[in-house]
Amino acid sequence: MAYLDTREAFTTAAPIGSSTIPAAFERSEWEVIVLAQRDDLASLRAPGWVARTFAALFGGNPDRRLASPRLEALRRLAVHAWHRGYAVPVSAMKNFKDAGFSPDQLELLLASVSQGRTADRRHA
């Protein structure tokens, strides 16, 4: 599993070649991006009756959605990016933008996840 240092590496500036406005995420946003690596694409759908029944019987929460709509939009885009690379759905990018994120942040997220995916493949 790859380790992304969320303390310093990505919070200072956008990737080289982007606009002059720094694109940074807050620490909690980086944590959402890193944790999204563990989620599968099925976590983007509402849990079905079987998952809800198992959760009721054995405990737990089958619903992985975040309470904050802004962070949920970020999580959804990050899950797509971890599984599909740059081929994320347009709807996920639109929701990301509607949640208040900038195009530079989109570029930063996709580039950072791409580096993490590459590192994962090297270690596998």
Describe the structure.
InterPro entries: AhpD-like (IPR029032). This protein has one domain. Helix content is 52%, strand content 0%. The chain has five helices and no strands. α1 (27-35) packs across α3 and α3 (69-84) runs antiparallel to α4 (90-98). It is globular and about 45 Å long. It starts with 26 loop residues before the first helix and ends with a helix.
Key terms:
124 residues, mainly alpha, 5 helices, AhpD-like
**Whole-number mean pLDDT:** 81
Provide the low-confidence segments as ranges: 8-21
Structural class, by secondary structure, is mainly alpha
- The gross shape turns out to be globular
What order do the helices and strands follow?
A: HHHHH
- Roughly what percent helix? 40-55%
Distance between the termini: 9 Å
Largest sheet: none
Q: How many strands?
A: 0
- What Rg, in angstroms, do the CA atoms define? 15 Å
- Count of separate DSSP helical elements: 5
**Number of discrete domains:** 1
Sheet-strand content, in percent, reads under 5%
Assembly level: single chain
